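Regression report. Comparing outputs from two consecutive submissions.

Submission 1:
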Amino acid sequence: MAGCGSGPLRCRKTHTGLNSTILVLIEGHDEHKPVVRGLGAESLGGPHLAHRAAIGPNSDVIVVTSGVGPQRAGRVTADCIRRFDPCLVVSAGTCGALIAGLELSDWLVTGTVRSLGPAGDSGRAAGMTLESSAVAEISRLRSVMGTVPRIHHGMLVTVSDQPVVGEVEKAAIARRHDAVAVDMESFGIAEAAAACGIPWLIARVVVDTPSRPLPELGAMNSQSGRPPLGGIARYLLMNPIGGPRTLYSLWALVNEYARTLVRVLPALFTDRSPPALADTNGTHRVDAGALAHQ
C-alpha cells in the first residue's frame, strides 16, 4: 500500500481563509493534455506532468498523470499528496463498461472501488473494497452535470495485471462482484488517499463496452498510457477504412470528457448543501446482477 508518509492531512489555513486544493489524477498523457488546456493550467515542473489552475481566490486544481496500473497510481498519489496537500483526490480518466446499460461517453461517478486478483480464475478473486467518505462531493458533482452525459454509479473494480477484454470475462466479473465498470488505477489512487485521511471520488468516462471493445493497439506504456506507435500503425494497416474513424472517435470522446470535467470541477469547491443522492438529473444506478444475465 502506498502510504502518505506524513500522516493525515487537512486543508491549509491562510490569512485569507481556507485554502482548498483538489488533486486530479488522470492515467495517460493524452487524457491529461485536454484537461490542463481547458483549465488554462500552468506547468509546475517536476514529475507526473503536474499543472495548477486557480479556480477561486483560495482554491486551485492540481492535475497530474498517474500512469497505468494501481501500484504506480498509488505511488504517484502518495507523492502528490505530500507535495500539494490536497483536500480532495479525484480519480479521473477512462474506464470500461462491464455490463449493458453503460454506453460510450457515459460517466461513472462513484465512491466504491474494489481491487481484483490476477486473471486466470473465473471472475477474478476479490481483494479489498474501499468506500469513499466524499458523499457530499459525489452528490454535488452528479447534481451539476445535468442529463448529458448520462451518469451512473455503482461498483468499479480495478485490475492490475492486464486489461479486461471480451464479453465473457466482463460478464463473469460483473456477476461475481456486482460491478458495473473496470479500470487499472482507481483502487491504487483511493487506497493512497485513504491512507492519508483524504476524501476521494471517481469520475471516469466509458470508452469501451462488452459489445464495443477498444481497438487492439498493443500494451500501453505504464508511464504515458500510450500504446506503441507500431501497434497503431498495424491497426490502421489492417483497418484502412474503419480504423481512422474509430481512433478519431476515441480522441473526440476523450476531449469531450475533458471539456465536461473542466466545467464541473468548480462545483466541488462550493460550500452549499448538496442535494440528496437520488436517481435524478440523469443519474443511473445500474443493477449489475440483473443486466449481466440479460
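Submission 2:
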Amino acid sequence: MVKIQSTSTGGDLSDPEKMRAYHRAWRKINPEKKKAIAQRYSQKHPEKVKVARQRYLLMHPWVKTLGYIRNRCVHNKNTHYFKRGIKAFITYDEVKFLWFRDKAYLMKRPSIDRIDSKGNYTLQNCRFLELSENVLISNRERLSLKRRAGAL
C-alpha cells in the first residue's frame, strides 16, 4: 500500500482514522467554509440530501420531536405555547435520554408530554406517552378547567 503524505497535515492520509480526525479539526476551524460546502452539495444533490435526512430521522426519531418542540415555542402564531410564555429548555441529549428512559421506541405513536402543562419543556417536566394517552390527559385537564370556571 502506498502512503500518501500531506504537507498540510504532516501525516499519513491513507489511514482512515487520521483522515477523519484531520477533517473534524478542519471543520471546527473553518465553520463558514464547511457551511458553504454543505450548501453547494445540497443544491447540487437535493435527492441524496433528502434520502440521507430521512435515513437520519429513521435512526434518530427523537430529533423530530425536538424540532416540533422548538417550533411550538418559537413561532408567535402558536397561541398555545408562545403567548403563554412556554420555553424549550430541553436539549438534544435530554430528549434522547427521555426517548430511551420511557421506551418511546416501543410505542405506536410516541408523544412528548409536559407533566406540568403550565411549565416549560425541561428534562424534569417531560416524558414520552402514547399519543392516545396524552390526548386523554389533555382533554381531562380542559374539562376540569371549564368546570372550575363554571362553564359546565
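Expected: both submissions complete independently.
Actual: both completed, but the second showed a warning that disappeared on reload.
Relevant detail on submission 2: The radius of gyration is 23 Å.
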